[in-house]
Amino acid sequence: TQIKPRKVLEKIKPYSPGKPIWELQEELKLDKVVKLASNENPQGPSPKGVAAISAGLADLHRYPDADTVSLKEAISKKLTVEKDQVIVTNGADELITLISEAFLDQGDEIIVPSPSFSEYDFGADLMGATVVPVPFDEGFQFNVERMIDAITDKTKLLYICSPNNPTGTYLAKAEFEKLLKAVPDHVLVVFDGAYSHYATAEDYTDGIEFVKAGYPILVLQTFSKVYGLAGLRVGFGVAPREVTQTILKVKEPFNVNSLAQAAAIAAINDDKHVEVSKESNATGAQTLYKEFSELGLSYVETMSNFVLVQLGPDAENIYQSLLEKGVIVRYGKIWGLPEYVRVTIGTEEENTFFIEKLKEVL
Ligand code: PMP
Fold first, then answer.
1. Over the stretch 279-296, which tens digit does the pLDDT of each residue have?
2. Residues with CB under 6 A from ligand 1
3. What is the DSSP string of 190-235?
4. C-alpha 86 – ligand 1 centre gap (Å)
5. In this predicted complex, what is the ipTM?
């Protein structure tokens, strides 16, 4: 065909998520496959969320609430922010795209600590903006000074993912405050707190307090992780009103389906499921640390629900051999970390299966 796509699309590579369980099962005729590749909640969905879906089935002939009023209310109550400071989207992924569409002109710059979540780059590429990666310090620690130095007149967005995907490291509150104070008026700070529920460090901030204090930041969260609703696609942002109103201009009216809205409203108040999920995650992290240490493997201490572990120059082969044995983890090459894999903390049984297979292939 002679129809030319937009020039900027030449840069965009197809997104490759972790292999689905069924695909590996079919490919290798495996009975058991354990997927620890997408940082999902191994405890399953919030039971309250699931119950709310059943109740919503009878109304499927209706369009969902375009303004997600009840869900915004539930979020604003939970986080004690104003309703118009909340925007709800079809997964946090959609929010990242919408932020990009709303704020990025061609030639603008975004600052992203590197390595981090790939969707930030996608949003910038889509709009013809330039990604300015800022490397981490030793041990994947954030370097705020380097981020401040990277700001130019063209900078529009500055991303902080804390805890960061794929490293599991976080930005301490005092450092974040230092960054916010140094950021000029023309830059929106996007704080990705997809994993913030898992962070237990005393000096961690989930960023919400800074929205309340009036800083120009947008905090992004998701129902895909601790709430266990990844399949429903619900995410949200909390930001000053001017920011949420700008993003609303590019949002499709019915972007969040009615079952997803109902489930999210129930899940955000399912404290028990959140607690159980956090506890199992903390125990799982300790198990993995212990096993990695015994195997002589270095790992990055995590504030999240995954661990980045260094397997050495043979990492790609080990990753492949694990696949053949029915364990799906994420190979680090996509983040420029060819000696690492990222493993989601699973249930006790899943962690044991992973370690057993790892020992076989090492
Ligand atoms: N931010 C980060 C850091 C993530 O890891 C993910 C999910 N992989 C998202 C955002 C997107 O989450 P959602 O499922 O809500 O699109």
1. 999 999 999 999 999 999
2. 39, 91-93, 117, 161, 165, 192, 194, 222, 224, 230, 235
3. EEE-TTGGG---TTB--SHHHHHTT-SEEEEEESSSTT--GGG--E
4. 17
5. 0.99
